[in-house]
Amino acid sequence: MERGETQNVEYKQAWRDEYLKWICGFANAKGGHIYIGIDDNGNITGVDNYKKLMEDIPNKSVNHLGLVVDVNLHAAEGKNYLEIIVPISNVPIAYHGVYHYRSGSTKQELKGIALQNLLLNKMGKKWEDMAVEGITFSDLNGNSIQAFIIKAIEKDRIPPNTLNLGKQTLFKNLGLLTEQGQLTNAAVLLFGKKLIKVSVTASFKIGRFGKSSHDLLFQDIVETNIFEMADKVIEILKAKYLVRPISYKGLERMEPLEYPETALREAILNAIIHKDYSSTYTFLRVYDDRLHLWNPGTLPEELTIDKLKQEHSSYPRNRNIANAFFKAGYIESWGRGINKIIDACKGAGLPEPIIEEDQGGVSVIFLKDIYTEDYFKKQNLPTRQVNALLYIKEHGSISNTEYQRLENISKRTATRDLQELMDKEFIERKGTTGKGTSYIFRTQTAMGS
């Protein structure tokens, strides 16, 4: 037996009736094993009253939870311990009226939206699949539907004769109708004229801020259907929020966005597609030195931020919404979205975006040139090392000789300083030893070319 608490394993030194909450949490999640007589470190402490517990625990589980569990006796190191095997429940389980859920190695009490999603999930349904009462095809945007069909045909992801099919057939094939022929939440989100009929928080909020999150300068709210939303958000960003630094490639004038459009579009599409639409708004906050995108909805249990950056399967929260965007060619179905964002930023000479789970959602922070004098000083670097980094930023690189001359220091001191900056992963050595050696920024960001 492997030791260590995980998503499916919990250790308790002795049994208490309150641990029925843990049984409840496992049953509502992925099932699991609770061991009685083992401490948090996986050390076997043993139980003496195992005979009584082997009778009491199954009875209490049935009486309080309506759930049948198996309790097995094990022995090791001369001590007895119990294993409670908790199955996955097909129906929501409550303990004294409270729904518990095992997430990671912790137990949570489910309330509000989280509880609603559990109840739907146990019924084999998702919010996007629920019927919208009183909605007909006249409440949908015909131009959006037509644009979708044309894009999907161009991508060869739906048959060319789809243009001749009725909307009923198309939406049925896309999983946007219930078995009774009613339009779903996903259908209205994708193509509806008024999303408020299914979600009052389906809008996409954009704000331009000063130096702090309290200093809102101006804002926009995008209230189109979500099929058109990404294009509208990008359009507004280009017109009002982002600048185009002018540069030249030969005689050709270049005006790319300050953040790569490919990365922005991918992140915005991810936020729209994977959002929990039973929750709050999606927010895009634009600052002088960064752009912060946040959408509600935690990652699925199968994924972590680290796994997102590796080769992984796709686990869309809203599978039919994701399928529609895939059919239209807006996304790929191979779970490469995060890597495309990272690669686009690095290719544009920008730092890797900061991606993390935050406040019940997913946060993506795009950074500009974060390597300013203030930033270096905050790293508690000596002044002469800060000067060396600023020199690299201006000139693209620095040699040992240049650093000696810049700071009027010995070769030995210069070598030690540059090695310290390499150890701290600010810079790396370029070229062979001797006069051909220079030092450049390690991350190859937009601080010099």
Automatic annotation (TrEMBL):
User: Which Gene3D superfamilies does the record match to this protein?
Assistant: 3.30.565.60, Schlafen, AAA domain, Winged helix-like DNA-binding domain superfamily/Winged helix DNA-binding domain
Q: Which InterPro entries match?
A: RecG_C_sf, Schlafen_AlbA_2_dom, Schlafen_AlbA_2_dom_sf, WH-like_DNA-bd_sf, WH_DNA-bd_sf
Which stretches make up the Schlafen AlbA-2 domain?
5-110
Short name of one Pfam family:
HATPase_c_4
Listed name of the protein: DNA binding domain-containing protein
Q: Which organism is it from?
A: Zunongwangia pacifica
